[in-house]
Amino acid sequence: MKNLEYLDSVKKQFEYYKQLGDKTFEQIGDEQLFYVYNSDSNSIAIIVQHLWGNMMSRWTDFLTTDGEKEWRQRDAEFEEVVNTREELLKKWNEGWNCLFNTLNSLTEEDFSKTIYIRNQGHSVMEAINRQLAHYPYHVGQIVFLGKMLSNNNWKSLSIPKNASKQYNAEKFSQEKHKAHFTDEYLKKKDSTRICADVLWQ
């Protein structure tokens, strides 16, 4: 049961970091998705390509094949292949869907299995944690670039500047309770989705 509680927690964290990327894409123009600072840097589009390649490789047949697939072209992920916002979002969502479909299929018994990545054995939990460390690293790069390119029009994705005192006061005014730190952010996302569905009916 503890493994399934862990799984529920990591799914919420992955969803939270996907949401940070989604909200960054919403705040910048098409041209900014492909901005490259210098030849040693990556654009947001290239970072998305890399995440997509990693996700498709790691989470396809997660329990039965090596996480580094023979068909993966890792070096090509760092070349300009994606050319439009639509192509970028397609890869972004395809990668995350592959991840969530796999996580949703895992059972308690699966946690006793060994996962290989480049022939290195991992427990299921270790393999998940490896990606839970990797993806936020790149999502942070996406958010940083988005904030830099938004030309002072950036809407904070966490606690806004000079709002920590108010935020803490609100939190500490509540009784101690068990909750996941992502709940308030994911609930806002669900509420927005419901409102949008109502408007389009």
Question: Which characteristics define this entry?
Answer:
201 residues; mainly alpha; Four Helix Bundle (Hemerythrin (Met), subunit A); two-stranded antiparallel ribbon; 6 helices; flat; disordered C terminus
CATH topology: Four Helix Bundle (Hemerythrin (Met), subunit A)
Overall pLDDT: 92
User: Would you tell me the structural class of the helices and strands?
Assistant: mainly alpha
Number of beta-strand segments: 2
Distance between the termini: 40 Å
Strand order of the largest sheet: 1-2
Main sheet record: 2 strands, antiparallel
CATH classification class: Mainly Alpha
Q: What is the CA-atom radius of gyration, in angstroms?
A: 19 Å
Query: From the coordinates shown, what is the CATH architecture?
Result: Up-down Bundle
**Which H/E pattern describes the elements?**
HHHEEHHH
Question: What's the total helix number?
Answer: 6
Count structural domains. Answer: 1
List low-pLDDT spans: 193-201
